[in-house]
Automatic annotation (TrEMBL):
<feature type="domain" description="BioF2-like acetyltransferase">
    <location>
        <begin position="117"/>
        <end position="239"/>
    </location>
</feature>
<dbReference type="InterPro" id="IPR050644">
    <property type="entry name" value="PG_Glycine_Bridge_Synth"/>
</dbReference>
<protein>
    <submittedName>
        <fullName>GNAT family N-acetyltransferase</fullName>
    </submittedName>
</protein>
<dbReference type="InterPro" id="IPR038740">
    <property type="entry name" value="BioF2-like_GNAT_dom"/>
</dbReference>
<dbReference type="InterPro" id="IPR016181">
    <property type="entry name" value="Acyl_CoA_acyltransferase"/>
</dbReference>
<dbReference type="Pfam" id="PF13480">
    <property type="entry name" value="Acetyltransf_6"/>
</dbReference>
Length: 274
């Protein structure tokens, strides 16, 4: 499943499947000579480039000049803190929760917080049936409709449904929908995307019955076991936010650790020259 020929920790937004998905959505990403992908946007009529989730190369200025983009403002948002060219910081870095999958099931179970472990035991005894299938390549599939409604209700942003569906079209084997069934009904699901030797939690939904049965604990545990057995090095559970303390606890109590993100910067010739 995981392509060990690529860098082990390939960021999701630098994976070839993501670039393919953008093409399917009518966007045209651009590439630096070393292969890093850039997005382009227009904000208030101003053209901007974005280098998502990648450390800028040491010769960034030369690479941009070689493709005629050295005069275009570039937004940098590296996955982790790293040496940065002269630039203006727009936003400081935060933290994301990352779970190491290189150890054994026994090691991961021992690392669980006692309350999380008890919830997992409840889920294991609840008679839930767990299934895994690729995501249907349809922006109107029920999972993506639920995600859109949930994001609107809770006020957070995720990929638009057409982009997630296009990722499923581009790389169906890199999409993994884990569902928990109880008495013939789906009570919870989680969608993960794989890239390089990594997996990333993308979206999820749970019913009141699923919460009572700790279905998300069981789904996440089964997903970790599945990815680990197939060579994954880590599972990215997403950004930790001060606005979602309960979700933070769920992520960190499963054994994940905090990893600093690199922040957001504006790189532009006037700054680079100063």
């Amino acid at each position: 499943m995981f392509d060990e020929a690529r860098p082990v920790l390939t960021p999701l937004m630098q994976d070839p499947a993501f670039a393919h998905a953008l093409h399917l959505c009518g966007q045209r990403p651009m590439f630096l000579p070393d292969g890093l992908m850039m997005l382009h946007r227009r904000i208030a009529g101003v053209r901007l480039l974005m280098l998502p989730r990648a450390a800028p190369p040491h010769d960034l200025a030369a690479q941009l000049r070689s493709i005629g983009l050295h005069r275009t403002p570039l937004i940098l948002s590296p996955e982790t803190p790293c040496p940065m060219p002269r630039s203006l910081r727009l936003r400081k870095g935060g933290d994301r929760a990352v779970l190491d999958l290189t150890g054994s099931d026994e090691d991961r179970r021992a690392a669980l917080h006692p309350k999380w472990r008890n919830q997992l035991k409840r889920g294991e005894k609840a008679g839930l049936m767990i299934t895994r299938k690729p995501l249907p390549a349809d922006p109107d599939t029920e999972i993506l409709r639920q995600e859109l409604r949930q994001a609107q209700q809770r006020g957070y942003a995720n990929w638009p449904p057409p982009l997630t569906a296009s990722f499923a079209t581009a790389a169906p084997r890199q999409t993994h929908v884990f569902r928990a069934h109880h008495k013939g009904h789906v009570v919870a699901h989680m969608l993960f995307l794989t890239h390089g030797a990594c997996a990333t939690y993308h979206l999820g939904h749970i019913t009141d019955t699923g919460k009572a049965l700790s279905a998300h604990n069981l789904l996440l545990w089964r997903a970790c076991r599945y990815f680990a057995k197939r060579g994954a090095a880590q599972l990215d559970l997403g950004v930790l936010s001060d606005e979602t303390p309960a979700l933070n606890r769920f992520k960190l109590r499963c054994g994940a650790t905090r990893h600093a993100t690199g922040g957001t910067y504006l790189y532009w010739r006037p700054f680079a020259r100063g």
